[in-house]
Amino acid sequence: MIAPVASGGEVKGESRVPVEDRLFSLVLALLATETGLLKSEILSTVRGYAERFDSAGQNANLERQFERDKDDIRELGIPLETVESPDRPGDNQALRYRIPKGQYDLPDEVRFTPDELALLGLAAEVWREASLSADSQRALTKLRSLGIEPREPVIGYAPRLRVRDTAFEPLRQALDRRQTVRFRYFKPGEAEPRPRTVDPLAVVLHDGRWHLHAFDHDAGESRTFLLSRIIGDVAPVPGSTFEAPPLGVQDRIIAELQELHLRNVADLAVTGGSDAEVRLGKRAIEGDEDAGVIRLHYTDAAVFADELAAYGPEVRVLSPASLRAAVCDRLRAVAAAHREPGEGTP
Predict the structure, then answer these.
(1) Which end of the chain is more exposed for a tag (fewer CB within 10 A), N or C?
(2) 10-59 confidence digits (pLDDT tens)
(3) Which architecture, in CATH terms, is 7-104?
(4) What is the pLDDT of residue 4?
(5) CA torsion angle for 265, 266, 272, 273 (degrees, to 10)?
(6) What pLDDT shows up at residue 173?
(7) By C-alpha distance, which of 193, 197, 195, 156 is closest to 180?
(8) Fold exhibited by the domain 168-247
(9) Are strands 179-185 and 230-241 parallel, antiparallel or unpaired?
(10) What is the pTM of this model?
């Protein structure tokens, strides 16, 4: 008896491969190749994709799944590379993907004992709640792909604690379903958050923060939003859908954000031995220890100004002037909020 087949090559009633198994298989496949794999080769052969691959070419949903999986793998700290074909430059269909094994191996001196792995398993039990459980499950993939097998089953290991923005999950679901959504967005410089109606095209992680790239119905063009500035709930618009986003949109947006990051440069004077010197110094691209000056790249001026203002007198912005003004505005607002009634403005 032949089982009915759903659109996209998925057999109805077929049990789905768990996400951690799919990521594990993808990591192993990309580690095993020197030259890299084409997207078509990955989708047609790797466990978790191959079961749903449609040889007739109806694989749009599967390709979007692969785009999200790439983000998850990179979020784990795994160096997934994109290699362009020298014969077909600019052709996304000719891109190859690989994980350089030399950059992914654990240092020789790093070893986990069975007792240490048991402790990792216990920690994972604690982290099973809310959004941290997804990090624990994905991190188990990384442990297994490194060839580490614990004496007792390890439920998960998260190399760092990170809670995604509240808007992440509803936006991910809207992206899967190609569902238009509404939310209120607080743009720096505006007094109140404004409602936005958008078609989500990609959710990407850059510079430690989640960004939504979407078609903004009100603006009539595509915009990129910071998830942390979304206020309140993300609500689907009933009966409103949109066409599948173009292939490679996630890589393009990450490249654009990275270009913006490199274009924005700040010179800072930091107090020697301060928290600002330690934390900001780790990100410096240049520095003059004698003068106590460091140079950094940044992506979002408002976010960076918030961070710098939190250091108070430990950091002073030398340039650009617009960033210095933004930090001063924040410091004045803090001073005003703590001023006693009746006190004048200094």
Answers:
(1) N
(2) 443 344 677 877 888 888 888 877 788 898 889 988 888 888 888 888 88
(3) Orthogonal Bundle (1.10)
(4) 34
(5) -70
(6) 86
(7) 197
(8) SH3 type barrels. (2.30.30)
(9) antiparallel
(10) 0.54
